[in-house]
Amino acid sequence: MKKKILIILLIVIVILIGVIGYFVFSDLGQEKKLNEELTEISDLTNAENINIDEINNRLNNIVTNGDYAIVEKAFKSYLKDNFDNSIEIANILNDEKLLNILTPENYKKDGKDFKETKEYINTTKEELEKCKENYKEFLTEDKMMSYIEDKGLDSYYIDLYKNDIIGDIEEQSNDKTVENSIDEVIEILNVYEEVINFLSKNSNSWEIQDDNIVFDSESLSNKYDELISKLPQ
């Protein structure tokens, strides 16, 4: 599970850096300011220890003016919404409840009907599905252009936004690593659900002894082991 979390975070950060890296301006002055700003944001996202508050401060701050400020604000708004969705994914996957569903501690705390655990699994799957769909939408031209539409800009600035950002992001949309990783976590949750439903259904046939689950029949014990074996090693 922790490996999946790291994979998703890594891909999200790489995509964010890629977007910033391809937003290149040709003029001086305002464009230079924006280039320097985006370089610093890139450095922040590429740091060993990512400072989320500092990144958000940069994304909420506009350093240019005029039409360039409109382009900068549109670009940063897109990045912030994308980044926030990615952070939401990370928060879900880092939730201690998720990592401790199939533990003796949870069995003792929420067993034997596992009402809280069942609700948590369903809610988490729904949240992950929603975040995945949002992630996919962020890599579409329609979504990206929605941040700069109806801003009263002439074609130069719209083309600048479209060609220098979208041209790169649409290539990234072919990479399904994040989506596949989320799907794998959802599959793990499906196995968790099978195990919890099994324990709930056979609530009178097991107990926790010395932090180990013990069944009153070999057949139930074998079934439990069979379900657990579906989890990735």
What key phrases describe this protein's structure?
233 residues, mainly alpha
Counting DSSP H or I runs of 4 or more residues, the number of helices is 11
Low-confidence stretches: 20-26
Rg over CA atoms: 23 Å
What characterizes the major β-sheet? 2 strands, antiparallel
Would you write up a description of this structure?
The protein has 233 residues and is mostly helical. Helices cover 72% and strands 3% of the residues. It contains 11 helices and 2 strands, in the order H-H-H-H-H-H-H-H-H-H-E-E-H. The protein has helices at residues 2-21, 30-45, 52-60, 66-93, 96-99, 104-110, 115-138, 141-145, 155-172, 177-201, 218-228, and strands spanning 206-209, 212-215. The protein has a two-stranded antiparallel sheet with strand order 1-2. Helix 1 (2-21) packs antiparallel against helix 2. The longest helix is centred in the middle third of the chain and has 28 residues, at 66-93. The chain is elongated. Residues 20-26 have low confidence and may be disordered.
